[in-house]
Amino acid sequence: MLSIRGLTKRYGERTALDKLSLEIAPGSFTVLLGPNGAGKSTLFQVLTGLFAADEGEVTVAGFSHRSEPAAALRSLGVVFQQMSLDLDLSIRRNLSLQADLHGLPRKVAAERIVEGCRRLNVDVDLDRKVRELSGGNRRKVELVRAGLHRPQVLLMDEATVGLDPKSRRDLLAALHEDVATRGCSVLWATHWVEEAEQADRVVVLHKGKLLADGSREEVTRALGEPSLEQGFIARTT
Asked: Which terms are listed as keywords in the entry (predicted)?
């Protein structure tokens, strides 16, 4: 569903991504685990077309970033690390704007907005301004927004930063439900080891390079420590 081959991105003399290759299967939940500065956000910026890679190729749902960029980007939904909602608009207006950008018919958009907000328990706040919401509920709205056009791949970049434990748990549960019901693929970037607990697959990134890739147990063994957390700390500090 998402194919990354030999991806390299440099900033002057610093290499943020170093010949990174990765394949994400349909209907899977993959955690991209890496410390700050590992290259996670750079990877997401390349995947979403904000930055151009220096080398390598990306395809999303079979569409090439280079030759079919519009089709590739239509297949993606994304929640960036920094909140990007308009604080002075209501939930409904924020989501309607996104639906318009994707060309969704108004009736379809209205149904999906209500459905998505109900699923994440923010439907009672549909007409409240976003600035009146808690951080956890703002993230939920961003997740609804990312899925309005029914993308085949969801990218989540440090999506739980600043959230309390319950909000973090609720957000992860909602994403796992999305994988189960819609069969979308999720790539979840984080530096929190506990967020890899229920992942189908864990990918460890450090200094732009792939350190380990596999199930939680396989990655733990590959890192050579008794636990994933111990191995992650030992190999990335």
From this structure: ATP-binding, Cell membrane, Membrane, Nodulation, Nucleotide-binding, Transport
Nearest Cα to Cα of residue 155 among 114, 187, 203, 202: 187
DSSP output for 105-140? -HHHHHHHHHHHHHHTT-GGGTTSBGGGS-HHHHHH
CA triple 83-46-22, angle to 5 deg: 110
Q: Give the number of domains in the chain.
A: 1
User: How much is the pTM?
Assistant: 0.91
Alpha helices in the chain (DSSP H): 40-47, 69-74, 91-101, 106-119, 135-147, 165-182, 216-223, 228-236
**Edge-to-edge strand list for the sheet holding 209-214:** 76-79, 153-157, 185-190, 29-33, 201-206, 209-214
Q: Is residue 156 part of a domain?
A: no
Interval 122-178: pLDDT, tens: 999 999 999 999 988 998 999 999 999 999 999 999 888 777 888 888 888 888 887
Dihedral sign, CA of 73, 150, 172, 32?
A: negative
Domain span at residue 98 reads 87-150
Span 148-164, pLDDT tens digits: 999 999 999 988 877 78
Alpha carbon distance 117, 101 (integer Å): 19
Is-contact 34 191, C-beta < 8 A?
yes
Give the position of tokens 């732009």. 208
